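Researcher: Please translate sequence to structure tokens.
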Amino acid sequence: MKKPTSYFPLFGNDFFEAIAGYSDSVGLGYLRALWHYWSHTACEGLPDDDEYLRRICCCEHTEWARMKEIIFDNRYHFRLEEGLWHQARCREEWRVCCLAYEKKVRQTAAATTARTKHVT
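Model: Translation complete:
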């Protein structure tokens, strides 16, 4: 089944509250990490690899230590679970989106079947 990777729900109030007080580069890095987590891993986790994470966040080497400390904080933003970084809210929204997508696929299949039964 195709996964809903092109759709990414952004809850603006929650997002901006989570990054309040940080620089724009941290906010953008966090958004990039969330997007990659959603669209490239289907919320199955980001590897615990500094260079990989730095590139996802599009962060300069000189800023990485501070940015990683904020985004991959193992508390509020991304948490390390069994060697992979996860974001709880994003993972839950992914689950909800997949359920809604599967429901739409079933509804479409049923409607198509009903329509083609009457045509033949």
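Researcher: Any highlights?
Model: The mean pLDDT is 90.
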